[in-house]
Amino acid sequence: GAVVSQHPSRVICKSGTSVKIECRSLDFQATTMFWYRQFPKQSLMLMATSNEGSKATYEQGVEKDKFLINHASLTLSTLTVTSAHPEDSSFYICSGTGAYNEQFFGPGTRLTVL
Amino acid sequence: AQKITQTQPGMFVQEKEAVTLDCTYDTSDPSYGLFWYKQPSSGEMIFLIYQGSYDQQNATEGRYSLNFQKARKSANLVISASQLGDSAMYFCAMREGGSGNTGKLIFGQGTTLQVKP
Q1: If pLDDT is split at 50, 70 and 90, which confidence band does A30 have?
Q2: Whole-number pLDDT of residue B99
Q3: Which residues have a Cβ under 8 Å from the Cβ of A30 and sit 6 or more positions away?
Q4: With contacts defined as CB-CB under 8 Å, which chain B residues touch A1?
Q5: Over the stretch B68-79, which tens digit does the pLDDT of each residue have?
Q6: Chain B closest CA to A55's CA: distance in Å?
Q7: Distance of CA B52 to the CA centre of its chain
Q8: Is A85 exposed, middle or buried (0-12, 13-18, 19+ CB in 10 A)?
């Protein structure tokens, strides 16, 4: 299957700082990427749909000014958690849509805000 | 309203035995797809099996099979001959079809499976 990478895999930051997470499709072009958030022992919750060259579509309850998403190319989408707080600590997973609508998931980024 | 429901937070199974993980869904869209993913403690999402709403036969992939009962809106995952490496969290997910479909997946709550030696 196709490969999606995420960087960094783990990040620890201080409260009030911003953190950028990159999601790359390595061997396919993803016109659409999705960002999910997962708390321990819980399900994946869709945060936003990211389309190349256009603004992201956020799910209800997700603050677009706090979770900035940029999808500048067909292989790269970034999620920036601005002014992070401890409650933003979570596992963030991206996925890219393949040519036949398959979903290829990245390995995830574990964010810890102190 | 919950679109994907997994009612078993945790399950145990003896090694080499079969286990069924339940999943029910709710949609009014005639075109949809159902997925099962495995998530080990590392966090990666591993695709297991897919069933399309128009597929006539139940999907099978090696030791995984999907018991698709369309009228009951259920898509249970059956794992045969369980192995210790099957211990993980399992998610059922649905993608609705139709025009404007973005391909996004809606996930169930997950079931933690533990395989006993």
Answers
A1: confident
A2: 45
A3: A4, A52, A74, A75, A77, A96, A97, A98, A104
A4: 47
A5: 999 999 999 999
A6: 14
A7: 13
A8: exposed
| pLDDT digit string, tens, across residues A45-82 | 999 999 888 889 999 999 999 999 998 888 999 999 99
Beta carbons within 10 angstroms of residue B30's beta carbon: 10
Ranges under pLDDT 50 in chain B: 99-100
Rg (CA), chain B: 14
Report d(CA B91, CA B109) in Å as an integer.
7
Mutate to test the interface with A, among B39, B45, B49, B102 (most CBs of A within 10 A): B45
- Closest by CA to A101, choosing from B100, B99, B93, B103, is B103
Q: How many CB pairs under 8 A join A and B?
A: 55
Interface mutation target, options B104, B106, B114, chain A, most CBs of A under 10 Å: B104
Q: How far apart (Å, rounded) are the C-alpha atoms in residues B27 and B42?
A: 32
How far is A88 from B67, CA to CA, in rounded Å?
A: 38
Average pLDDT across chain A, whole number: 92
Retrieve residue B108's tokens.
């169930």
The partner residue sitting opposite A49, judged by closest CB among B104, B108, B112, is B104
**A80 φ/ψ angles, rounded to the nearest 5 degrees:** -110, 120
Nearest by CB to residue B103, choosing from A44, A57, A97, is A97
DSSP state of B62: T
